[in-house]
Design a protein that fits this description.
Layout: H1 5-9, H2 16-28, H3 31-39, H4 50-56, E1 81-85, E2 91-95, E3 101-103, H5 111-119, H6 121-124, H7 128-135, H8 145-165, H9 175-182, H10 195-218, E4 224-233, E5 238-248, E6 254-264, H11 270-284, E7 290-295, H12 299-314, E8 326-328, H13 330-343, H14 346-359, H15 363-378, H16 396-402, H17 406-415, H18 425-452, H19 463-477, H20 483-512, H21 520-530, H22 534-553, H23 566-575, E9 582-583, E10 589-590, H24 597-602, H25 606-612, H26 624-631, H27 636-645, H28 659-664, H29 675-687
Parallel strand pairs: 4-7, 7-8
Antiparallel strand pairs: 1-2, 2-3, 4-5, 5-6, 9-10
Subunit structure: Homodimer.
Keywords: DNA-binding, Metal-binding, Nucleus, Transcription, Transcription regulation, Zinc, Zinc-finger
Subcellular location: Nucleus
Length: 693
């Protein structure tokens, strides 16, 4: 904004010494003559008036004398300062806000002026947004490449902050946010951007973090397992597939990383879904390092995994020719079992809800019911007097609640002749039996959920006894004296058999690699489940285990060993060399070609030696990954198997169920974001934890 000299000098505050000088200048120089003097270059003669000005006004800061020639005033400081020339030829720069004046000089002419702009009290009380803008302007005529690079880095860091902490996008255009970040003393060159620029920065961060993750995965020794989730926005009829990567890294830590969140334009076409999934695997270059895929037990997902199995088996890149490639989601199948079981008592539950509505429909009915409740409590029986919400869907929690109505309803039926809707005793018995059975299933899911809520992820071996316990329960219910329980068990077991056929090999191999149990736990649980047929079943597991071991021992699926303990792994290769000469119990050389029993013992495979060695003690809190990290030198081939099979996810549930909804809450317009931005907002927060290499 341009100001005339007269108006500038008549406004603001002025010091007493400078006021007289200003008045004398105004009497001699009119506006036109003053403008001419400001534009013309000063003369060749340099007049030293420092002593004179110091006497006139001791508060004035005096700079070096001006040079004879000046370049054009291009710096932005001249939007805040105006210049005058006194009668003696001296040039002064005067602040338009506080009337502070500086003698002009050619050496670092704007340095003091720029410093004054930052600390001027009058400007600080004025336009803060203008202050933030002026402080970020580069006053140097030549652009510094390092400064430009720092600006871009700062912008990307702001984008990372917004992604990681779910900040609203509008903050980049808020005055106080800009004023705060623009005035940081550590980064005075930083300049905030608009929301459109922020979107470009987010995509740039996505690209950079994806490259980091790709490098990290390429350096990981083990194979990868995936979970697939298909997810839809009911309000917008948009559908996505959500891919999570599970693996054990070189430090023997179980990791899971969100790999992709892709929009689907073809919800009902499984072939196009497979093509999109295949394209994603090729993009990440992990198609030849897959071990297993876990998906919910849906028909379309089964078709997708079947196509994947054909593709990956053709290129011979999965163990056991794809026999263990597909695992169903354990949590999902148990929830389906509970749902099917609740259908068996749906009619009884609805009758109880009708009774509930009758009781709480009038104050008189409520009074009678509470009297019945007090009598039942006096007899020491468990009962509740809570009202169950109307139109409630039958669930395990509600069944547990309504069962405690039983005794109060029975007494109310005697005292209130109009209460004729109470279920029969046979119906109460049925719903009680079904509840006890379904409660077993719910407790298994609850135990897994509570264990998985800790910071330590669950390895695959943990699931074997839990899955077997459900299978055993279904078998026992099928032999129940109650016909309704036998019928329910038959339906549930039929559904569970489909899941068992997909996952039992993976679960058995994983639990054998647990040194606390080894193969004994498989024999024990199969005896519980199959009875007389147990030996035939566990021998098939044993044959499969040996087949997988031979594949890994032959090098077909050998992983590169971590370099964290090179000396230990060197010893391991020596120990497992079949041509290495051993010592007998007397310390004498013992050739492996001898026929002695000791020689035969040392020629046994890793798998045989592992199974024959004493088991680890049965402690509940056991870090199986640490055990394999330490024992890798003794069992390098089995360690490769353990790295792959212990990382297989048994549940395909989202790592963070509220993740997508959190993204949609970032901004009101987020629901309309394009798929690339949504993928970046969902994936990058998880990738930011990848350590720098």
């Amino acid at each position: 904004m341009a100001f005339s000299t007269a108006s500038t000098m008549n406004s603001g505050r002025s010091s007493p010494g400078f006021s007289g000088l200003r008045d004398s200048c105004l009497n001699v120089i009119n506006d036109e003559e003053l403008e001419t003097q400001l534009l013309r270059p000063p003369g060749d003669q340099v007049i030293d008036t420092a002593a004179f000005e110091s006497t006139l006004n001791p508060d004035v800061e005096v700079l070096a004398p001006p040079l004879t020639k000046r370049r054009k005033l291009v710096s932005k400081v001249w939007e805040v300062f105006t210049t005058i020339t006194t009668l003696d030829g001296k040039e002064w720069a005067i602040c338009k806000h506080c009337d502070k004046k500086y003698a002009r000089s050619s050496k670092k002419e704007t340095s003091n002026l720029l410093k004054h702009m930052g600390k001027c009290p009058s400007r600080r009380n004025g336009d803060q947004e203008k202050l933030a803008h002026e402080m970020t302007v580069d006053t140097t005529p030549v652009v510094n490449n390092n400064i430009a690079s720092d600006k871009e880095l700062n912008r990307l860091n702001v984008a990372r902050m917004i992604i990681r902490h779910r900040c609203p996008w509008s903050m980049v255009e808020q005055d106080f946010s800009k004023a705060f970040l623009n005035t940081l003393q550590q980064q005075p060159t930083f300049k905030f951007q608009s929301q459109s620029t922020l979107k470009a920065d987010i995509l740039q961060v996505y690209k950079e973090e994806k490259e980091k993750l790709c490098r990290f995965l390429s350096e990981t020794s083990g194979r990868f397992s995936l979970t697939i989730n298909f997810w839809g926005l009911d309000s917008t009829f948009r559908f996505f597939f959500f891919i999570t990567l599970h693996f054990i890294d070189n430090d023997w830590e179980l990791k899971k990383k969100i790999l992709a969140f892709k929009k689907l334009e073809f919800w009902g076409d499984y072939w196009k879904k497979f093509k999109a999934f295949k394209s994603m695997l090729l993009d990440w270059n992990i198609d030849k390092k897959l071990c297993c895929v876990t998906a919910q037990n849906m028909e379309e997902e089964d078709k997708i995994v079947r196509e994947m199995k054909l593709w990956l088996t053709y290129q011979d890149s999965v163990p056991l020719r794809g026999k263990v490639l597909h695992c169903g989601c354990f949590i999902h199948i148990v929830n389906l079992l509970v749902h099917d079981g609740l259908l068996e008592v749906k009619d009884v539950f609805e009758k109880i809800m009708v009774c509930n509505s009758y009781i709480f429909s009038t104050p008189e009915n409520d009074r009678k019911f509470r009297i019945a409740v007090e009598y039942v409590k006096f007899d020491g029986k468990e009962v509740i007097s809570e009202e169950v919400p109307k139109n409630s869907t039958c669930s395990i929690e509600l069944l547990e609640k309504v069962l405690r109505f039983r005794e109060a309803f029975r007494l109310l039926q005697v005292t209130d002749l109009e209460f004729t809707l109470n279920p029969l005793e046979e119906e109460w018995d049925k719903i009680t039996r079904v509840y006890k059975c379904l409660k077993v299933l719910a407790e298994v899911v609850q135990s897994i959920s509570s264990s998985g809520s800790s910071s330590r992820c669950l390895t695959t071996n943990v699931f074997f006894p839990k899955v077997c316990s459900i299978y055993r329960s279904l078998c026992q219910w099928g032999k129940s004296d109650s016909s309704d329980i036998r019928l329910m068990a038959y339906k549930l077991k039929k559904r569970f058999d489909m899941y068992w056929s997909k996952c039992h090999l993976v679960l058995a191999i994983a639990v054998v690699l647990d040194p606390r149990f080894k193969f004994d736990i498989v024999k024990s649980w199969y005896s519980e489940i199959y009875g007389q047929e147990a030996e035939k079943c566990w021998k098939r597991i044993q044959d499969t285990l040996e087949e997988v071991y031979k594949e890994y021992a032959a090098g077909g699926f050998k992983n590169s060993i971590s370099s964290s303990s090179p000396s230990l792994f060197a010893d391991a290769s020596t120990l497992n060399n079949p041509d290495y000469n051993m010592l007998d119990h007397l310390g004498m050389p013992l050739l492996t070609t001898s026929q002695g029993s000791d020689s035969g013992r040392y020629q046994k495979s890793e798998l045989d030696r592992y199974l024959e060695e004493p088991k680890f003690r049965l402690v509940q809190e056991f870090d199986i990954l640490s055990w394999w990290c330490v024992n890798t030198p003794n069992f390098p081939t089995l360690a490769n198997m353990a790295r792959d099979f212990l990382a297989i996810p048994i549940s395909a549930a989202l790592a963070n169920p509220t993740l997508i909804s959190d993204v949609l809450k970032i901004d009101p317009v987020s629901s309309d974001l394009d798929s690339e931005i949504m993928e970046a907002l969902i994936c990058v927060p998880d990738w930011l934890q990848i350590p720098e290499k």
